[in-house]
Fold:
Amino acid sequence: MDDNFENLKVMVIDDSKTIRRTAETLLKKVGCDVITATDGFDALAKIADSQPNIIFVDIMMPRLDGYQTCALIKNNSAFKKTPVIMLSSKDGLFDKAKGRIVGSDQYLTKPFSKDELLNTIRQYFPQLEQ
Structure:
């Protein structure tokens, strides 16, 4: 079964070049249009232009962390319904709870596998199933 995520715009916000590159490679292979950002400020500058369908955001980032970034995205009426998935190297209950409070839709622990990444997207876009 071939995944087909054509025309799906995915934003990946992470200060780690490795994570950005890994996610971008995996997502482009299945046809996604990938927008990357190095931190929250970078993401907020790009978000209006790119209009992503789903956003993955790292929690631990300099300047504007993932929680603040998520809250700002969710407070914008244009992106309130856009799924925001928190990325963290910690699998803590506190982090998950805090993510929920700022409006994140899900939580993915790094390092994530290709399947975890794609399954997460499928939950929000079931029409992508072949």
